Fold:
Amino acid sequence: VQKSVQAWIHPEISSLQPHFSGLTNEDRIGYNPYISDNANIIVFRDENWQDSRSMMALTTVTHHNGTGYIYDADIEINTTHWNFGIVETPEDDFVDLENTLTHEIGHVFGLAHSGDVDATMFAFAAEGMTNLRTLEQDDLDAIANIYPPSSQICSFKNDYFERPPYEMNEGPAPDSCSTNTRVPSDIFHIYLWLAALGILYFRRKWISQFKA
Structure:
């Protein structure tokens, strides 16, 4: 796990600074707005895998659709249908755990699947494969783009979720390092009012032309 996390740390191009916290008693997948701390967990499903058996692993990400802010991300490993280990040779007939986790941790950081067949974030892996352990240029470009170098370091505040966003429509706290791009409500209402006047004007003009 630590090696897979470390693979994504490239301070020369990105401000991404993940860390591995160790063991936790939490086993709940998904975001819980009613608790102060949501751990990003890795769960090994030795039985009762609920998704397609062809999936080696699954990452569930809860994010804000407007800002992209990630509230929670959890990884499930399908040890119900696949054998995992640390591959030493391509002939090993089990799935390399480091290979799988490096890919899934990319999802934790907000990356989707890549169309580059050589990339860590490509959507396919097989038993004996280890090439996803190290990032390729497409993966590096992705983290450099969404986590650009910055002197300002994001720090999680334990009191951020004291007032739970019931409908997941609240942005980051104002004092966080994320940029708040929401339009002030009073300006937004003015925009709506002007837009309504414009629609009414063009509608009347169109009707008059149509009647003529």
About this structure: The two ends are 73 Å apart (CA to CA). Strands lie at 42-44, 57-63, 70-77, 84-85, 95-96. The longest strand covers residues 70-77. The CA atoms of residues 15 and 150 lie 6 Å apart.
